[in-house]
Amino acid sequence: MKNFLSAEARGLAPYTPGEQPRDQQYIKLNTNESPFPPSLKVVKALSRAELLKLNLYSDPACTQLNAAIAAHYGLHPANVISGNGSDEILAFAFRAFCGAGQPVAYADVTYSFYQSQAALFGLEAKVIPLREDFTLNVDDYMDFPGAIVIANPNAPTGMAVPRQDIQRLLEANPDRVVIVDEAYVDFGGESCVPMIFRYDNLLVTQTMSKSRQLAGGRVGFALGGEALIEALNRVKYSFNPYNINRLSLIAGTAAMEDDAYFQSCCETVRKNRAWLVEELEGLGFAVLPSSANFVFARCGRLPGGELYRRLKESGILVRWFDRERVRDFVRITVGSMEQIGALVDELARMLEEL
Amino acid sequence: MKNFLSAEARGLAPYTPGEQPRDQQYIKLNTNESPFPPSLKVVKALSRAELLKLNLYSDPACTQLNAAIAAHYGLHPANVISGNGSDEILAFAFRAFCGAGQPVAYADVTYSFYQSQAALFGLEAKVIPLREDFTLNVDDYMDFPGAIVIANPNAPTGMAVPRQDIQRLLEANPDRVVIVDEAYVDFGGESCVPMIFRYDNLLVTQTMSKSRQLAGGRVGFALGGEALIEALNRVKYSFNPYNINRLSLIAGTAAMEDDAYFQSCCETVRKNRAWLVEELEGLGFAVLPSSANFVFARCGRLPGGELYRRLKESGILVRWFDRERVRDFVRITVGSMEQIGALVDELARMLEEL
After folding, report:
1. Chain B interface disruption, residue of A1, A2, A4, A202, most B CBs within 10 A
2. Average pLDDT over all residues of chain A
3. Which of A77, A348, B26, B315 is such that its CA lies 20 to 30 A from the CA of B119?
4. A207: which strand partners?
């Protein structure tokens, strides 16, 4: 077969998403989705009248959605850009703020998609190891001259960086953009959003996939000073101006406006997480301190890959990364009590039989 | 305000989408949407049960949608990739098949988004002028060493290139990818899809925005040999693996399966176009021969910009491009009889008053 790939495309590092099996019903604790349905206000807003308008383009400026997001955070709409999931927004940021002579830095153990996107734009990437205990030492980033991306809380560890540490990074070099990926912040991290007006080199990305029950709607957004948002819009309008479809615009707006449901779902996840951590520790697991809607846990008696495979055979999907430093762990989404109860029962059975 | 833009981002050429006004009700003939609602099978498929699953990620492989598209065209699913509109697919193609030393060529008068995407990836672009009468001379492309993009039918002219001409290009250099953008092909062009198995350097892109009533759903796709599709998937999984949301996957699948409605809508557009062309010519307009769901017309008595402005004041939106060679024209979407009837009445009134 001929190879038509450009040199740049040959250098890509495509991301492997978590399994989305279609063959059988699993207890799905592998992609950090919310175990709860979307807000009923979302379902109501997706009316038949709206479905019948699908022949018309969506609003490329995402006016209503951005207004709802801005209102929620006490920002101006000019501080907001929305995307087809926060993955798209992150790609826009990599293009906007990095390039030849403008490298990007991120941790060795973090969302592996940063590596894919750095390769997409042919960026020089500096990979900075976390400490032995998986905490991030901001001092390691102080002198780095390019953009910095920090997932906070981090994935797959679930561990959070104190806001004060990010602040030090922002102040150390005001000409350097710091991208804080807050996909999981609503479950316990300290958000950097309140610092946006203070630091014009701060970009915060968030998603509606985890805490707002819209993984299937693909809605993410970034918050930052006007200059950063304008830069991201330059990229968006060079890539895909109508980047969010009509129904996701409506769903995202309604989800953002239903604060009570959002709060209650986050609270339930935090309670379920506490229960899950206690049970796992009771079974002898070492669990990293999680501020996210998942836990990263090591069994000790079974390697991570083996644990993943046995659970899958029992109809339970968790995520295992066959990568250095984290091979002993599995990442488990904090599901409903029914889901994590079944997981804990299965683990207890499995370990008893060893 | 500080400028955080990378050198690459400073070189961008963002696209200006057609107006999507939110202030008043216009007769909207400016963005080539279908005047008809989506298939009722689309509306039915977007059931409450599906809305309630929005908390779960969409299928990144787009299995059902790709299967429906493949079935419609008699291809294998491995010959199909779907995207968040065909704009996204085109961007994937620019990254996959072009790069340093691998330039891209396109016409001077064509979909201006190619220029935006070439800039996005820092590509060297060769802009090849159409003939004086806006026809494309494939001989001008014969010796070009890089990838070629041809909109067929072309936008904004609506004029089609014979399939035989594309075939000559494909054969002239089998190591060069030819991307045929068939966004408007269902209204009268000769599709290159039947040549896919014969030429492994042929990529055809299409969209559901025009002929399948789903502009607001954002569903586009590319058809080609397995090597080309695999290359596009490398880019997709480096950029945004979950690139189509759940509801658009469902809508696109249902739209593709409702062939009767698709055929009937295309037929109506062709009939309405014939009527519109006749009326415009009756009013003294010069109209380029259109194979698309729009016509490109020159008034003679009023400059294009003036015509656009006067129509907008009267509540009718058409598209005007303030660019060399096409400044005298306006692009008018072939709407419903009610819409184009109102347009023709207004034009008659306007010209009488001159």
Report:
1. A4
2. 96
3. A77
4. A220
Question: CB–CB of A216 and B52 under 8 A?
Answer: no
Query: What is the Cα–Cα distance from A285 to A346, expressed in whole angstroms?
Result: 14
pTM over 0.95: yes
Of B31, B53, B246, nearest to A57 by CB-CB distance is B31
Kindly list the residues from chain B whose CB atom is less than 8 angstroms away from the CB atom of residue A243: 84, 218
d(CA A157, CA A288): 7
In 3D space, the residue among B74, B67, B91, B75 whose CA is nearest the CA of residue B249 turns out to be: B67
How is residue A347 written in tokens?
């683990």
Q: Average pLDDT for residues B20-45, to the nearest whole number?
A: 92
Print burial letters for B322-346: b (CB count within 10 Å at least 16), e (below 16). Answer: eeeebebbbbbbbbeeebbbbbbeb
Q: Least CB-CB distance to A216: which of B16, B88, B246?
A: B246
Place of tokens 């904090």: A334
Residues of B in contact with A45 (CB under 8 A): none
Average pLDDT value for residue range A85-113: 96
Residues in A touching B226 (Cβ below 8 Å): 1
- How do beta strands B202-207 and B220-224 pair? antiparallel
Residue A286 β-bridge partners? A298
C-beta neighbour count of A153 within 10 angstroms: 25
Residue A334 · residue A269 · CB < 8 Å: yes
Contacts of A57 in chain B (CB under 8 A): 17, 20, 31, 33, 209, 215-216
CA distances from B185 to A28, A195, B222 (A): 42, 50, 13
Q: Which residues pair with A296 in a beta bridge?
A: A331
d(CA B56, CA B250): 14
Of A319, A200, A243, A220, the closest CA to residue B3 belongs to: A200
**Distance between CA atoms of residues B184 and A97, nearest Å:** 36
Cα(B126)–Cα(B91) distance, integer angstroms? 17
What is the reported pLDDT for B25?
A: 87
Distance from CA of B264 to the nearest CA of A (A): 15
The C-alpha of A338 sits at a distance from chain B's nearest C-alpha, in angstroms, of 17
Do the Cβ atoms of A226 and A41 come closer than 8 Å?
no
Q: Which residue of A has its CA nearest to B114?
A: A238
Nearest CA of chain A to the CA of B190: how many Å?
Answer: 24
Model confidence at B1: pLDDT above 70: no
Select from A245, A253, A205, A250 the least CA-distant residue to A228.
Answer: A205
Q: Tell how far CA B197 is from the center of its chain.
A: 23
Q: Is A163 exposed, middle or buried (0-12, 13-18, 19+ CB in 10 A)?
A: middle
DSSP 3-state assignment of A267?
Answer: helix
Residue found by looking up tokens 């899950």 in the block: A276
User: Given its phi and psi angles, is residue B144 left (phi above 0), alpha (psi -120 to 50 degrees) or beta?
Assistant: beta
Instruction: For chain B, give the percent of residues with pLDDT over 70.
Output: 99
The verdict on a CB contact (< 8 Å) between A54 and B217 is: yes
- ipTM for the whole predicted complex goes beyond 0.95: yes
